[in-house]
Amino acid sequence: MFSVIVEIISKIKNDPSLIKIATPESHLIEDLNLDSLDIIDFLLELEVAFDLKFDFDKIDFSMMESIHALQAFIEQEKERSATA
Questions:
Q1: Of 30, 67, 68, 74, which residue has the fewest beta carbons closer than 10 angstroms?
Q2: Is residue 5 classed exposed, middle or buried when 0-12, 13-18 and 19+ CB atoms within 10 A define those classes?
């Protein structure tokens, strides 16, 4: 999952070097420089990659604290949709 997330970020930022420098602790906004438009594109790409549907009005942006936090959020969302 980590590599998929980093590949998506790299694609959005058009910066292949991010694949080598991103870590599970990387902050998506501060370290990887996702801006507000990037975040929308990123979330849409995540929906496709992980077969999810985000409610953008209720999304908790604390998941952007790190790639690890995002992975936990995605796993939680996948479990929630599997039991729904």
A1: 30
A2: buried
Task: Give me the architecture of the 2-83 domain, per CATH.
Answer: Orthogonal Bundle (1.10)
Structure tokens that stand for 33 in this block: 């420089």
The residue type of 67 is I
Helix 67-83 vs helix 2-13: crossing angle, to nearest 10: 110
For the whole model, what pTM was predicted? Answer: 0.89
Output b/e per residue, 6-44; b: 16+ Cβ within 10 A: bbbbbebbeeeebeeebeeebebeeebebeeebbebbbe
Q: Give the tens place of pLDDT for each residue, 1-41.
A: 999 999 999 999 999 999 999 999 999 999 999 999 999 99
Residue whose structure tokens are 């694609």: 11
